[in-house]
Amino acid sequence: MHEIEITGNVKSVSVFIGTGKCNGNCKHCAGLIHRKYAPDEDGVINKNLSDGDIYKILESCHYKGARSLSISSSGEPTLSPKSVTRLLELVDFLKSDQLKYNKINLYSNGIRIGEDEDFVKTYLSDWSLWGLSSVYITVHSADEKENAKIYGVPSYPSLRTIVSRIHNVGISARANVVLSKNSVGSLESFMNLVSQLKDIGFDNVSAWPVRNEDDKVDELLAPSKEEMEKICRFAVENSTNSFVIRVLGEEHHELYKTGQKLTLFPNGKLLNTWCNN
Ligand code: SF4
């Protein structure tokens, strides 16, 4: 991992936005180490970079081939809606300069979308008009009580409500599943969860084995090699055009190492990594 100059081909870029506020309280929060750099005020995209700097970075990434943009946060991005809107406005300026990001994805824990209908009406529908194409919901289980436990909250909203609210404003919904022996650690549990997620209405599922603080697959918690092979085979055999199941392995991480996937962190650094700093 190192600060990177945009030299080679770039496939996608992620931008951390927002104040770092979160309505979840997970035991191991990957956003925590970035939070001290986050701006205090919603509406400021990055404390260390001007909007003009961010525009230039996104422009350079586009010149190098990036067509996919992810919006993430050191907290929960839906709690910093003005920052999300501001970034989407910048991306819209790029579009008017013929530099279009075809896919714009928002990572979310889904809590605000499921609990706050006014938020959905005020912001999510606008974001759809600004070009947001997909919301990625991190799903630990199809069971609300299980999700509440892992998110460390008293209750977690119904996934059906979350997905239907996303669909109602014309955005697709992807379930992101972290494969861990603590939640989904075998082929059987993965198959069960995928079937439930499909029934709930998710458009696709992406899954990857849990990683440790050194950004390597956590050998203790991740499913065994044999189970991972079975899970990968199941994903390939059951993926269709209308419901894509993807298991992201080391080759996906190679895209970071080779600088094809970049992340703009709250400290203002553009790095070829996802979670570490
Ligand atoms: S939902 Fe995400 S940002 Fe919030 S506490 Fe959990 S891991 Fe951290």
Explain what the structure shows.
The protein contains ten helices and nine strands. By secondary structure, the protein is an alpha/beta fold. Helix content is 38%, strand content 17%. Helix 2 crosses helix 3 (81-96). It has a nine-stranded mixed beta sheet. The protein has one domain: Aldolase class I (TIM Barrel). Bound molecules: iron/sulfur cluster. Residues 22, 24-26, 29-31, 75-76, 109 line the site of iron/sulfur cluster.
Instruction: Determine the fraction of residues in helical runs and give it as a percent range.
Output: 25-40%
For the largest sheet, list the strands in their spatial order. 7-6-5-4-3-2-1-8-9
Distance between the termini: 8 Å
CATH H-level superfamily: Aldolase class I
Q: Please give the oligomerization state of what you see.
A: single chain
Main sheet characteristics? 9 strands, mixed
Low-confidence stretches: none
Please tag this protein with its features.
single chain, 277 residues, TIM Barrel, binds iron/sulfur cluster, alpha/beta, 10 helices
Write the layout of secondary structure elements.
Elements: E1 12-17, H1 32-35, H2 51-63, E2 68-73, H3 81-96, E3 103-108, H4 111-115, H5 117-129, E4 134-138, H6 144-151, H7 159-168, E5 172-179, H8 187-200, E6 204-209, H9 225-238, E7 244-247, H10 250-257, E8 261-264, E9 270-271
Parallel strand pairs: 1-2, 1-8, 2-3, 3-4, 4-5, 5-6, 6-7
Antiparallel strand pairs: 8-9
